[in-house]
Amino acid sequence: IGGRNYKKSQFNRAVHALRAPGSVFKTFVYSLGLNLGMDWNKQYFVAPVTIGNYRPRTQHSQLFSETTMFESFYKSINSTAVLVGQDVGIDKVMTYVEKIGVETPLKEEAATFLGGSEVTLLDMGRAYMTIANDGHRKKLKSISRIEDREGNILYENLEEESSKRILKKKTYALIKEGLKSVVRYGTGYKVRHLSGKVAGKTGTSNKSKDNWFCGYTKDLVIIVWMGNDDQNSFRGNISASNTAAPLWASFAPVSYTHLRAHETDSYLVCRL
Predict the structure, then answer these.
(1) Fewest C-beta in 10 Å: which of 22, 37, 122, 192?
(2) What are the backbone dihedrals phi and psi of residue 88, each rounded to the nearest 5 degrees, phi first?
(3) CA–CA separation, 113 vs 176, rounded Å?
(4) What distance in Å separates the CA atoms of residue 51 and residue 29, rounded to the nearest whole number?
(5) pLDDT above 70 coverage of the chain, percent
(6) Are residues 124 and 106 in contact, defined by beta-carbon separation less than 8 angstroms?
(7) Reduced to 3 states, what is the DSSP secondary structure of residue 139?
(8) pLDDT higher than threshold 70 for residue 262
(9) pLDDT tens-digit map of 15-43
């Protein structure tokens, strides 16, 4: 859902709006690290990180402790994500995210590791679809088929689907487990009642201007973004865990039931 009233405004937030993805972008940084041979069990010490004039914030309760790459992912620890990004290199991150579906140009800077560069919801949909689709990227179709009330086909997109593997099979299995752990143990706790059936990641941009939950079920990739057109923050710096995640959770099981009942092709759903 990209707009409120098409007659009043044709601005489609699902494809036109540029918003900071926050921590949902970390999925790409970590999956690239895993794709290059890094291990979930790699140890990190959580401490303030400074790169030039950039110093990302990390929760005080997380500082000065040892952690693993895996735990850092599902707890969404900022300093570790930056270190993983530095280990793989910003140039490789830029190339990788383009391959998996982020077509909006990104800033080549450390803040990008934490989702500081603006993207569209469609970018996030394409990228998370690549991850959900066993690491294969496929070309999106806006419309597969149109039928009239009698079932006669009025239009059908017969373009052959191309598929390209971006993630190794091992990487896909590892990042999927990480995304499931976000729901089980981490920042996606408001989706926990669906644990085992879903995988996803929360994302909150600076000053809570953008709240995201990007994830998938067996049949669906669902991208939820919540924010204000004027870039004003949510009151009280509310995080995605308390806004986008519950909305995602309320929609996912309904969609799953609907798809199973109607044997429908999989969808990309942009929910605002």
Answers:
(1) 37
(2) -85, -30
(3) 19
(4) 17
(5) 93
(6) no
(7) coil
(8) no
(9) 999 999 999 999 999 999 999 999 999 99
